[in-house]
Write a structure and sequence with these properties.
The protein has one domain. It has five helices and no strands. About 50% of the residues lie in helices and about 0% in strands. It has about 110 residues and is mainly alpha-helical. The chain is globular, with a radius of gyration of 14 Å. Helix 1 crosses helix 3 and helix 3 crosses helix 4.
C-alpha cells in the first residue's frame, strides 16, 4: 500500500518518490526535477493519459480529495473531453448530463 500524501498543500507533494516515478513516465518533455516543481500537472497528466495501474497508484497516493483539487484547478488543455467527463462522474463532481465545460482560453480582441 502506498502512503498517501497530505492534501493541504501541493508543495508537500514535491518530495514524493511515487510521484517522481509517474513524472518520468508522463511528463516526458521535462526532467523529473522540472516536472516535480509542478506536481499537480503530473497528477492531471496521469488522470488524462494514465494506464489503469498507474491511475490506481495515483488514487492511493493523492486520494479522491487530491484528484478533486487537481481537476477543479485544471489548466487549459490538460484534459481531453473523455477524461474530463470520466473524472467528474467518478469523483461525484457532476451528475449525468451536467459536467462543466472544459477550461478554455479566452482571447481578447481589444
Amino acid at each position: 500500500m502506498i502512503e498517501a500524501l497530505p492534501l493541504q498543500d501541493f508543495e508537500a507533494w514535491k518530495g514524493s518518490q511515487e510521484l517522481a516515478c509517474l513524472a518520468k513516465r508522463y511528463i516526458w518533455w521535462k526532467t523529473v526535477e522540472q516536472a516535480m516543481e509542478n506536481p499537480e500537472q503530473i497528477v492531471a497528466q496521469v488522470m488524462n493519459l494514465g494506464e489503469w495501474s498507474d491511475v490506481c497508484r495515483l488514487v492511493d497516493l493523492v486520494r479522491d480529495e487530491g484528484l478533486c483539487r487537481v481537476i477543479k484547478h485544471a489548466e487549459i488543455g490538460i484534459f481531453n473531453e473523455r477524461s474530463w467527463h470520466y473524472w467528474h462522474y467518478r469523483l461525484g463532481l457532476a451528475k449525468v448530463g451536467s459536467v462543466p465545460t472544459l477550461p478554455t482560453r479566452k482571447l481578447s480582441y481589444d
